[in-house]
C-alpha cells in the first residue's frame, strides 16, 4: 500500500522550529511528510519583532541559526526574508506549493494570501494553559506571561492561522509541560520544544488522515 505524503512548509526558528523540523524529517511519521520549504527568522531585521519576543533574552548566536543550518545541511529550500513580498509569494505558490503549513516560533504575521493557500490549512503552535480559547496568553511572549502569573505548567495550542493574533480555530491541546521554579523564557523553549513538536506533527497527521 502506497503511503500518503503531504507537502509541508515550516515557518519556524529557535528550538521549537528546530524540533518541529527534526520531527518531520526523523520522527515516526517522517514517511508521511515531505518538507518543501523552510522560512525562518532573521534576527537582525526589525520585521521579526525581536525586541518583544524570545530574541530579547540572552541567547547564543548559534541559536539564531538552528533552523537555517539544519535546513542547509539537508539541502531544503530555505528563506529568511520578508514573507509578505512578491518574491516570497511566487516562491511559495509556484515552487514550494505546500499542502499544509506549520508555524513554530516565527516572527512575522502571516497574511491571508499565505494562510489561505495550503489546501489543508496553515497552523501555529502557541504556548498557553487550559484557560479557554482564544487564550489570555495570546501574544509574542507567552512563557513570560505565564510565569508572571505564577503558573507552574504550560501546554501548547495547535490552532489555525487567521487574520487575528493567535485567535484562529483551536484544533488540539498538548499534554502538560512543567515550568520549573527557576526557569527562564529561553529555558522553557528548550524544555517544551520536543514535546510540542511531537504533539503538533502527530495532530497534523491525524487531522489530515495521513496516519492514525
Outline the secondary-structure elements.
Blueprint: E1 6-12, H1 14-26, E2 33-39, H2 66-74, E3 78-79, H3 86-96, E4 100-104, H4 112-115, E5 122-128, H5 142-148, E6 153-160, E7 170-173, E8 177-178, H6 185-208
Parallel strand pairs: 1-2, 1-4, 2-3, 4-5
Antiparallel strand pairs: 5-6, 6-7, 6-8
Could you walk me through the main structural features you see in this protein, from its secondary elements to its overall organization?
- The structure is a single chain.
- By secondary structure, the protein is α/β, with parallel strands linked by helices.
- The protein has one domain: 3-Layer(aba) Sandwich (Rossmann fold).
- Helix content is 32%, strand content 20%.
- It contains six helices and eight strands.
- Strands 1, 2, 3, 4, 5, 6, 7 and 8 form an eight-stranded mixed beta sheet that branches.
- Helix 1 links the parallel strand 1 (6-12) and strand 2 (33-39).
- Helix 1 (14-26) runs parallel beside helix 6 (185-208).
- The chain starts with 5 loop residues before the first strand and ends with a helix.
- The mean pLDDT is 96.
Summarize the structure.
By secondary structure, the protein is an alpha/beta fold. It is built from 6 helices and 8 strands, in the order E-H-E-H-E-H-E-H-E-H-E-E-E-H. It has helices at 14-26, 66-74, 86-96, 112-115, 142-148, 185-208, and strands spanning 6-12, 33-39, 78-79, 100-104, 122-128, 153-160, 170-173, 177-178.
Entry keywords:
212 residues, alpha/beta, Rossmann fold, eight-stranded mixed beta sheet
Strand coverage percent: 15-25%
What is the arithmetic mean of pLDDT? 96
How many helices in DSSP terms? Answer: 6
Strand segment count: 8
N-C termini distance: 15 Å
| CATH class label | Alpha Beta
CATH fold name: Rossmann fold
Shape: globular
- SSE order in H/E notation? EHEHEHEHEHEEEH
**Helicity, in percent?**
25-40%
**Uncertain residue segments:** none
Total individual domains = 1
- Alpha-beta classification: alpha/beta
Radius of gyration: 16 Å
State the major sheet: 8 strands, mixed
Examine the secondary-structure arrangement and name the CATH architecture: 3-Layer(aba) Sandwich
